[in-house]
């Protein structure tokens, strides 16, 4: 059976996926290999959360969940603090990262380049989910509308970020006829919290950010609401998608899914952190459906999912 051969040698349906993966069932994510010799069953599972804000804060926030994950899988679990989206994708592609939350914008690249299989997303108690991209400035900046950014500077986070780069680039071009480097100077801060702090401290005149990150920073009193002013708010986008690398043993993938959906949020370290952005549970999702709008934004920006 051809699908059991090494992925790179296969003639199989794969869509935008890298040559090492197959997508026979057409769900846009890499199929789990049927050849047992290609499957991973690591003694220690490595988990990484998307690189926003301070990794130390999130190591503590995820501690109760990772203890639960150990109980369900019977394996030890290590928290891996990643410093960039690129490093997180490379870690999964190279087989060093097994379970992860990839942020909205880097999810498609993780799926297509690293064999990421997302299946869940955080949601509020009533099942609502998502966040908006906002363009923010500071009081007295002289910027009262998006058009006022012309001739000035706009801070982005990183090129793989949806709300920190890709969505605002597409929206500015289509709705305001504003193009980076032609109409304004782009600068890159690296992370949403850097952009938000940069505006609050008046180092950047304006920035495009994920408002879920800003909400948590206000809750934690890293900034105060009166330090920033929002001049644009987008439609709602999906938040971080969580899942596994494609070649974990199927039984292990199922145990990891079970751990996400059986986790008790109430009283946990996860609740203590994420209730700040109104999240209270993991719900099931599919990449094909939930990331449709993000793939359209990527198409508008001519984004390639090819591995670098």
Automatic annotation (TrEMBL):
Protein keywords: Signal
Q: Which Gene3D superfamilies match?
A: Periplasmic binding protein-like II
Say which domain of life the source belongs to: Bacteria
Pfam families in alphabetical order:
Phosphonate-bd (PF12974)
Q: Say if the entry is tagged with keyword Signal.
A: yes
Q: Please report which protein family the annotation says this sequence is part of.
A: Belongs to the phosphate/phosphite/phosphonate binding protein family.
Q: Which NCBIfam families does the UniProt entry name for this protein?
A: 3A0109s03R
Annotated protein name in UniProt: Phosphate/phosphite/phosphonate ABC transporter substrate-binding protein
Q: What is this protein's gene name?
A: phnD
């Amino acid at each position: 059976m051809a699908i059991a051969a090494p992925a790179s040698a296969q003639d199989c349906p794969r869509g935008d996926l890298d040559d090492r993966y197959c997508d026979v069932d057409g769900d846009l994510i890499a199929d789990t290999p049927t050849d047992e010799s290609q499957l991973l069953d690591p003694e220690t599972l490595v988990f990484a959360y998307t690189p926003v804000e301070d990794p130390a804060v999130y190591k503590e926030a995820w501690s109760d969940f990772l203890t639960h994950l150990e109980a369900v899988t019977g394996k030890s679990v290590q928290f891996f603090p990643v410093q960039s989206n690129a490093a997180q994708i490379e870690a999964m592609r190279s087989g060093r990262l097994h379970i992860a939350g990839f942020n909205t914008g880097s999810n498609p690249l993780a799926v297509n380049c690293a064999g990421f299989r997302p299946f869940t997303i955080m949601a509020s108690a009533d099942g609502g989910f998502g966040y908006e991209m906002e363009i923010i400035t500071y009081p007295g900046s002289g910027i009262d509308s998006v058009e006022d950014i012309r001739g000035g500077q706009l801070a982005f986070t990183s090129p793989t970020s949806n709300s920190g780069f890709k969505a605002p680039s597409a929206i500015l071009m289509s709705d305001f006829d504003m193009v980076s480097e032609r109409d304004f100077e782009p600068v890159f801060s690296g992370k949403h919290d850097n952009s938000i702090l940069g505006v609050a401290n008046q180092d950047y005149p304006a920035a495009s950010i994920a408002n879920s990150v800003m909400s948590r920073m206000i809750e934690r009193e890293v900034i105060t609401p009166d330090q920033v002013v929002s001049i644009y708010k987008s439609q709602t986008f999906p938040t971080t998608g969580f899942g596994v690398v494609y070649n974990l043993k199927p039984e292990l993938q199922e145990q990891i899914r079970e751990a996400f959906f059986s986790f008790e949020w109430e009283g946990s370290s996860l609740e203590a952190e994420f209730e700040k952005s109104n999240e209270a549970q993991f719900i099931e999702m599919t990449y094909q459906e939930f990331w449709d709008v993000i793939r359209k934004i990527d198409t508008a920006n001519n984004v390639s999912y090819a591995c670098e």
